[in-house]
Design brief:
Order of helices and strands: EEEHEHEHEEHEEEEEEEEHEHEHEHH
Number of strands: 18
Oligomer: single chain
Largest sheet: 8 strands, mixed
Shape: globular
Mean pLDDT: 91
Distance between the termini: 43 Å
Strand content: 15-25%
Strand order of the largest sheet: 4-1-5-7-8-9-12-13
Length: about 350
């Protein structure tokens, strides 16, 4: 049920959705205060839509923890004023931002929806209009008692509402640019918006929102591949003050069983670096008890990432170390679902 007395804050960070082509065909950001000129359908909404934009639009490729902190600040400063928040964001790093915000916005009781487009909103065939209009509608959708249907950070794209920290960009050219392989859709928009209320992440009863800003970016991603040399793997050992490595492995969490490989990973762990095992596969989960290659990693202290995405793994590690937790406490937290980012299995 749409609340016509509701209000939404639309936050424009940058990205394709807020672009137009100049006379030379070059994509340029437009003034988002003129949004209704490009999307006249917005005038048919009865609820209030206010807008705020970054002083300088940020290309998605330049998104970083500083920008995530700015988004949290905008939401905290306006949390009591609005029923929901829609963030317009470039697609390339949208899954990283959604994952980070899911941890940084603790116990929120309102929707925070990230969306964008593959074509600029000024293009005739743009996917941006439908993504924007439906995201705004979801941001004010409530039950008959006035409770919001969505109370977490999500991505809405091409008719699909997905948990933000379960989402990965899968296509650079198709309008269906995102998918949530290891967790069901939270809603699907057709002639009606069909929600999976049973799957929504809800704030703890009686809790109040907490807004986190501290992040520790001393995290690396290492993707293994056939023919990887010891020199390539060892290069990560030279990174000063490294806190954690997200190790992208094969299949169910397998890696080369050669001794030199295990010795280097063991050296990381003995230095105090947390190594989190994440599968390279689009779907499925790490199970280090399934094959000997995975067992060898488990035996030297590599942790299972279960079915977490690489994007969420990076964000979760930055968040946990940003809290100032000890290495042992971080290891414990990695085995738990904080905001629905993993399905914990018995490994």
């Amino acid at each position: 049920m749409l609340d016509h007395n509701a209000s939404v804050l639309l936050i424009y960070t940058g990205g394709t959705i807020g672009m137009f082509e100049d006379a030379n065909g070059v994509l340029m950001p437009f003034d988002f205060n003129a949004l209704k000129e490009y999307v006249p359908e917005l005038q048919r909404f009865k609820f209030t839509i206010d807008t705020v934009q970054f002083e300088q639009p940020v290309d998605s490729s330049d998104m970083n923890p500083d920008k995530w902190q700015k988004l949290v600040w905008i939401i905290e400063a306006n949390y009591s004023k609005y029923d929901g928040f829609v963030i317009l964001h470039g697609t390339d790093t949208m899954a990283y931002s959604a994952s980070a915000l899911s941890f940084m916005l603790e116990n929120i009781g309102k929707p925070v929806i990230l969306t964008g487009s593959q074509l600029p909103i000024g293009k005739i065939r743009t996917d941006g209009k439908e993504n924007l209009l439906t995201a705004l509608e979801i941001a004010v959708d409530k039950d008959p008692e006035g409770n919001p249907f969505v109370t977490e950070v999500c991505i809405f794209f091409q008719n699909l509402l997905m948990r933000g920290n379960r989402t990965t960009k899968i296509n650079a050219a198709n309008f269906k640019a995102f998918n949530s392989f290891n967790f069901p859709l939270l809603a699907e928009a057709g002639t009606q918006i069909r929600y999976r209320h049973d799957l929504m992440h809800r704030p703890l009863r009686g809790s109040i929102p907490k807004f986190h800003y501290a992040l520790d970016p001393k995290v690396a991603i290492v993707k293994i591949f056939p023919g990887m040399s010891a020199e390539v793997l060892k290069a990560n050992s030279a990174i000063p003050h490294l806190r954690a490595i997200v190790l992208e492995t094969y299949g169910a969490g397998n890696a080369p069983g050669e001794q030199w490989f295990l010795d280097i990973v063991d050296e990381w762990i003995k230095r105090g670096i947390i190594v989190l095992n994440v599968t390279q596969c689009a779907s499925g989960s790490v199970d280090m008890e399934r094959y000997q290659a995975g067992k060898s990693l488990h035996e030297i202290g590599v942790l299972s990432g279960y079915d977490i995405t690489t994007e969420a793994a990076v964000a979760k590690l930055m968040f946990l170390f940003g809290l100032g937790l000890t290495r042992q406490d971080v290891k414990i937290a990695l085995k738990m679902a904080i905001v629905g980012e993993i399905t914990v299995a018995v490994n």
